């Protein structure tokens, strides 16, 4: 290759490089690019600032949300305590009402059972008179040879038996505790005396029988109690 050709190629390459530099400079220095670059920069800055403000708002909202949640939790605790207090009062009221109902029902039942005890006490005197009347009749006189006395005695005995049936029908039970252990709830001791053949603390003599109305002592039996000699 000769020298002329080499120089010609170098000149072409140099001119091509100059044109490329000029074109790149013209692109960089283009008015459109220069006008759009500030806008791009502003948009980026605005997006950055918007992102920062959003983060700040989220950070500001988090304490507000946490305080609201705390207030809701406190209100829930207060409501639960109030509900517990109301339920306790409700249960106590129910228990008091049930106790009152049971007491009232017991009073009604007792009135039904023991409402006749005054009437029964009056009838006990009649029963005592019948008992004394039958005991006062000499057994040896009650014979066929004395029919009037026998008929009268039989009538008294039948009346006494019938009145005891009526007493039992209405829960009135006769107490004749002779030979039994003395019970201060059912017996009234008139005296204590040593009695041969009787264990100390037992009823040795009954001067007046007692009565119980539905398990409650209406009249204690009047007794004499044996004691140790």
- What does the overall shape look like? elongated
Count of DSSP-assigned helices: 4
Q: SSE order, as H and E?
A: HHHHEEEEEE
The main sheet orders its strands as 1-4-5
Query: Unreliable runs, pLDDT <50, ≥5 residues?
Result: 1-6, 32-42
Instruction: Give the DSSP E fraction (strand runs of 2 or more residues).
Output: 5-15%
Structural class of the helices, strands and pairings?
alpha+beta
Tell me how many strands there are: 6
Residue share in helix: 55-70%
Describe this structure in words.
It is elongated, with a radius of gyration of 61 Å. Mean pLDDT is 79; it is low at 1-6 and 32-42. The chain is of the alpha+beta class and 229 residues long. The strands form two sheets. The protein has a three-stranded antiparallel β-sheet with strand order 1-4-5. It has helices spanning 3-28, 31-114, 117-136, 147-169; strands at 172-175, 187-193, 203-208, 210-213, 216-219, 221-226.
């Amino acid at each position: 290759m000769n020298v002329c050709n080499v120089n010609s190629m170098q000149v072409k390459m140099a001119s091509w490089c100059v044109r490329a530099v000029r074109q790149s400079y013209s692109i960089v220095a283009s008015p459109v690019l220069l006008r759009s670059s500030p806008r791009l920069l502003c948009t980026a800055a605005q997006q950055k600032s918007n992102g920062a403000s959003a983060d700040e708002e989220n950070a500001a909202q988090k304490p507000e949300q946490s305080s609201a949640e705390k207030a809701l939790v406190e209100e829930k605790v207060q409501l639960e305590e109030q509900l517990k207090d109301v339920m306790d009062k409700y249960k106590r009221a129910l228990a008091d009402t049930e106790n009152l109902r049971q007491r009232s029902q017991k009073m009604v039942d007792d009135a039904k059972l023991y409402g006749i005890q005054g009437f029964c006490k009056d009838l006990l005197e009649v029963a005592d008179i019948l008992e004394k009347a039958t005991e006062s009749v000499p057994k040896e006189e009650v014979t066929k040879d004395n029919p009037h006395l026998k008929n009268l005695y039989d009538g008294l005995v039948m009346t006494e038996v019938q009145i005891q049936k009526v007493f039992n029908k209405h829960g009135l039970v006769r107490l004749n505790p002779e030979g039994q252990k003395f019970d201060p709830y059912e017996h009234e001791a008139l005296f204590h005396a040593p009695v041969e053949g009787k264990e100390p603390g037992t009823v040795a003599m009954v001067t007046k029988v007692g009565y119980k109305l539905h398990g409650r002592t209406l009249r204690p039996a009047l007794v004499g109690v044996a004691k140790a000699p």
